[in-house]
Specification:
Layout: H1 16-26, E1 36-37, E2 50-59, E3 65-74, E4 88-96, H2 97-105, H3 110-121, E5 128-131, E6 141-144, E7 149-152, H4 153-161, E8 165-169, H5 171-186
Antiparallel strand pairs: 1-8, 2-3, 2-8, 3-4, 4-6, 4-7, 5-6
Length: 195
């Protein structure tokens, strides 16, 4: 993800009055300690909240669902999260950064892995959202934006009732989250693509 300083493409999602604070935080990259905080004390449902122990699913090469419980980041806008608003929420799995790199060791050379890890820590990979240390993720975590899934709204509410919230984005962190989601999901195609 490049061009963090150019807010023109995000002008509708980042109010002008918050752009200077976000710009100051972006200058601290690869320090992302400003992204997350403890679960919000008064808002019980926020876009970007990290919840633990949520079933996630991917469809394998044979077309079979594979499920496992992982922390997830909730992608829905906060206004879409109240009771009776939707039957499902959209969630992206969250994995331990160190374990992810351990898995990648078998697939990359040492120098390739080092470069890949550096790019991830700077949030330059659109499909991987690097998060700083929180809730037992001592070396940070990755939100796997390319593996989003639908989760029952009832299950989501049960996770909240069971106190499974692990973190919320800070006010400035939430704008960076929107930049990351916009870049991953709504960036323009390469000029090589012909329509």
């Amino acid at each position: 993800m490049s061009g963090f300083g150019d807010f023109s493409r995000y002008s509708r999602i980042i109010p002008e009055e918050h752009q200077s604070a976000l710009q100051a935080s972006l200058k601290r990259i690869p320090d992302f300690s400003w992204l997350l905080a403890e679960p919000h004390p008064t808002e019980s449902r926020l876009q970007g909240d990290i919840l633990g122990d949520c079933p996630t699913v991917v469809i394998d090469d044979a077309g079979s669902p594979k499920t496992t419980k992982l922390p997830v980041m909730i992608l829905n806008n906060s206004c879409d999260l109240p009771d009776d608003r939707a039957d499902f929420v959209t969630a992206a799995p969250v994995v331990d950064f160190a374990k992810f790199l351990e898995f990648e060791k078998g697939r990359r050379t040492k120098s390739s892995l080092e470069g890949f890890a550096k790019a991830i820590r700077q949030n330059e990979k659109t499909e991987l959202f690097y998060l700083p240390k929180f809730a037992g993720f001592e070396q940070g975590a990755l939100v796997l934006l390319h593996l989003v899934c639908s989760v029952s709204a009832k299950l989501y509410r049960n996770l909240l009732i069971s106190h499974k919230r692990q973190a919320s984005f800070t006010p400035i962190g939430s704008y960076f989250m929107l930049m990351k989601l916009t870049t991953h999901l709504a960036r323009a195609e390469s000029t090589d693509v012909r329509r």
